[in-house]
Each structure stands twice: as structure tokens, then as C-alpha cells.
Amino acid sequence: MASRWKEIVKKIDDYRWEIPTSYKDGMSVPGRIFASEAMLDHIWEEHAFDQVANVAFLPGIVNYSLAMPDIHWGYGFPIGGVAATRVEDGVVSPGGVGFDINCGVRLVRTNLTETEVRARIEPLVIELFNNIPSGLGSEGKIKASRKELDEVMMAGSRWAVEKGYGLPEDVVATEESGCMKGARTDKVSDKAKKRGLPQLGTLGSGNHFLEVAVVDEIYDSDAARVMGIEDLGQVLVLIHTGSRGFGHQICSDYVDILGQAVKKYGINLPDRQLACAPIESPEGRDYLAAMACAANYAWTNRQFILHWARESFARVFNKSQAELGMRQIYDVCHNIAKIEKYDINSKMEKLCVHRKGATRAFPAGHPDVPEAYRAVGQPVLIPGDMGRYSFIALGTEVAMAETFGSTCHGAGRMMSRGAAKRSLKGVDVARSLAAQGITVKAESMASLAEEAPQAYKDVSEVVEITHQAGISRKVVRTKPVGVIKG
Q1: Gap between the Cα atoms of 192 and 256, Å rounded
Q2: 394: closest CA among 240, 238, 226?
Q3: Which pLDDT does position 418 carry in this prediction?
Q4: What backbone phi and psi angles, to 5 degrees, belong to 178?
Q5: What pLDDT is stored for residue 371 in this prediction?
Q6: Nearest-angstrom CA–CA distance, 395 and 321
Q7: What are the domain boundaries of the chain?
Q8: Quick check: is 240 catalytic?
Q9: Does the pLDDT at position 416 exceed 90?
Q10: Which among 412, 425, 107 is positioned nearest to 235, based on CA atoms?
Q11: How far, in Å, CA of 337 to CA of 278, rounded?
Q12: The pLDDT of residue 356
């Protein structure tokens, strides 16, 4: 029975729910889920409660095993899961990052209006689709050598900018300035490098997309203005992709390596998918070094795609980059583990914060927020589905106190990809989107079916929970007018 969760979960308030340590023998901290009561039946039915509880077994975990309202079943950790472990005696788990390392979102503002773009939306979507490689196993236009791939792993998006793909200010407006420290190319397998070489500069498949959107609602005009968003109907561009097969292979490699480490270090886990190793162990340090390589690859990947998107807009509208005003607002990670410092019981501690399907949400004044946004807080980019909305929010002090500076990352699935393909037809999805004034182009009809709007939660409900809970605050809502998917 779905309502059985009511016998287990303690209500903190309308947006916070606690799974006590008594739920499973071995939990060292409670679970805490940010959700509405209406969402909890689905979360329970999907067994995501169990995954939140399982994460609470990890050695060195601090305060809570956390879940955002877009939570759904994942590998080891739920997608939408956040966990912080102490560096001195805690572990790092690849399942807490995910297979698509540094899957993330890049947001760009433009000077264009909805009227201008709708008049050219069909040729624009076709130009973007033709100019940006997409689809399962897609190969990019960048023919990098092994040496250049190593440089990408070490330098991140700055490497692409130095090659003429983008602007120096793109790097400044990227989480970690587009380059995670601690990368070591010798910790990445030859198999991962072979998979990564041809896919650099590709959108990929699944839930990855490029969206042409228009500003539909502004909740905080002052904060929006800081981002270069002035009016309703202003056109923005969202790019959502990650490290492709390169990151997937790195995760696969280290799930195996850390699975052996679990035995070596005598770690007891309720689920082998939580494979982990002490952060300060050779295996833990090696994973973090390889993960950083994948993160840097992903930022470089999005940098290439941004460059080609700018080219496409310039060709279709016959305007210069100065006239288009395509300035990057920000770029955030959704799947990452980072060493960060937090106040734990009045003591600053170094923690390894796992964010899997969760977004960093640092507040105003935080030194890691770019100077342009330090007065308002870090932009939080929360894409929805193809048929509804996406949101721009800001990080908060509440997030720092309660969620290790984290909030939701998107809508979250309601239906598995397989179930969506069995119950929906891509051609019907395309027709439905067209009726809403949304032009979509995809590599296959099957990909449209599995990414249909009805396969996802309503992102408006998800974002409202994080807004009301105070872990991020709404600034802008956008709606799609054109989408390309793999």
C-alpha cells in the first residue's frame, strides 16, 4: 500500500519529511526528503525511500541522507540524492555521482524576442540540429588527439575557449570556472579514453537537449536584471548534456574497483551499488581524480555546443554576436562530488558532498559564487520537460544550513524510459508539442516517446517545494518554443 509511508515517516513541516534511523538497522543518520505530501505515495511506490535509507549506511555520513523533490530510483543513490561524508573518516561513492558525471545545464541570454524567434523557429531548430551532433553514440566534429584529450581532462572549458570556441567570460560564468582541480589523466582507463575521443562536442541522447526558450514569468526583477534578463518574451537558450560515454565508462570502471575496496576495508553496505572507498584511501583519491577528468570533459563539451549554438543563431538571424547578445548566464553541475567546508556543530569540517541529480545552491556572499552574482547568490538552473517550464533560481543560506548548499535539478521522472516507450508514440508527442507552439527535432521518434512531458513530474510543483522550503528561491520561469534532442 502506497500510504504505508505514513506509518514510518515523521512530518517536520509541509515540505520536509524524515525517515528515522529505526527504519533500517544500520542507518547512522536519518533520511530527510523535501517533498509535498502528494508526492510521497509515488516516492514510496518507487522504493526510493529505501535508497534514501541505504545511503544513510555510508561511513562518515553527516546529518542526513537527503532527497530533493525530483527524487526517483537510481543506481545506489536515488536521483535527487545528496549526502555529505567527512573527509577524515568518510567514503566516496560513484553511485552518489552517477554515470553521467557532470551532467549539467548551461544557460545563455539573448537580445532576441519571442516574436523574432517564432518567425524563424523552423529554420533555427533545423540549423541547430544540423550544426550540433546529437543522438545515441553520436560522434563530434572535434577530432581530438590523445594528447589533446589529456589537455581537455586537465584544463576543462578553458581549453575550448583557447582554441577559439567561445569567450573568456564563458569560463568565469561556469561552476568551478569550468575546471575541477585534482584531475589525473593516468587514473582514467584506456577504454574510457577511447570512448571519449569521438564524442567530444556532442549533445548525446536520453534526457539531453538544447532548448530555445522564452521568459514567461519574472518573480524577482532585480535579480533577473543581474543575469541580463529584462523582459517577458526575451529568448534564452538552455544546453543540457554531460560527459557522454567517457564519464559513463569512468563510473563503470570505478564501481568495479570500489566494489573490491568495500571488501578490502571491511565496509558493510545494504546494497552493492553503493560501492565506495575511504576518501583518503588510494582507491578513493583515484576515483575523485578520474571523476574530475570527466567533469572537465563535460564542461568542454558544453562549451563547444554553446559556440555552435551562437554560430547557428548568427546564420539564421543574419546578426553579429554583438547584436545577438548571447552572453552565458551560468553553467551548473548536476552529478558531482566535491570537497567543501561546512559548519558542523560550530566546527568547520571538510566534507565530500555527493550531488546526484541535485544542483549546488550557494548563497549571496559565498566566495565560490562569481563576483557578478555575489550580491544575489549563485544562479540555479532547473530544466523541466519539453512541454512545460524551466526555472532559474538562486541559492540561499537555508540551503547552506540544511542541504550542504544543494537543491533540486529538474522535474524528475514519473515513468521509466521503457514504460514511456511502451505507452506513448513519438509521433503523437511531436504533434502534441506542435499544438502547443513547440517545434521539436529529434534523432528518433523513440527518444521523443521516452522523454515525453507526461513521463516527468511537473517541474513547477518541484520548484515550488524548494522555494517554499527556502533551499532555493525562484527568479524566472521560461517556456520552450524550440527543442532539439538526440
Answers
A1: 14
A2: 226
A3: 83
A4: 75, 15
A5: 97
A6: 30
A7: 104-414+456-485
A8: no
A9: no
A10: 107
A11: 14
A12: 98
Q: Classify domain 104-414+456-485 at the CATH superfamily level.
A: tRNA-splicing ligase RtcB (3.90.1860.10)
- The percentage of residues in the chain with a pLDDT greater than 90, rounded to a whole number, is 87
Amino acid type, 173: A
Residue 136 pLDDT exceeds 90: no
User: What cell does 286 get?
Assistant: 583515484
Interatomic CA distance for residues 310 and 314, integer angstroms: 6
How far apart (Å, rounded) are the C-alpha atoms in residues 418 and 291?
29
pLDDT value, residue 430 = 87
Residue 66 CA to residue 15 CA, distance in Å, equals 13
Instruction: Answer for the pair 72, 420: CB distance below 8 angstroms, yes or no.
Output: no
What distance in Å separates the CA atoms of residue 284 and residue 278, rounded to the nearest whole number? Answer: 6
Taken as a whole, the chain contains a residue count of: 486
Question: Among candidates 378, 374, 348, 375, which has minimal Cα distance to 360?
Answer: 378
**pLDDT band (50, 70, 90) for residue 1:** low
Closest C-alpha to 300, from 191, 151, 98, 410: 151
CB 108 within 8 A of CB 74: no
Going by pLDDT thresholds of 50, 70 and 90, the confidence category of residue 2 is low
DSSP 244-289: HHHHHHHHHHHHHHHHHHHHHTT---S-GGG--EETTSHHHHHHHH
Task: Quickly state the pLDDT bin for 296 (edges 50, 70, 90).
Answer: very high
Q: How confident is the model at residue 451 (pLDDT cuts 50, 70, 90)?
A: confident
277 and 287 in contact (C-beta within 8 Å)?
Answer: yes
Cα distance between residue 77 and residue 335, in whole Å: 11
Average pLDDT over residues 414-428: 84
How many Cα atoms sit within 13 Å of 408 on the Cβ side?
A: 36
Fill in the amino acid letter for 48: A
pTM: 0.96
Considering 72, 248, 409, 467, which one is annotated as catalytic? 409
- Cell 563530434 locates to 140
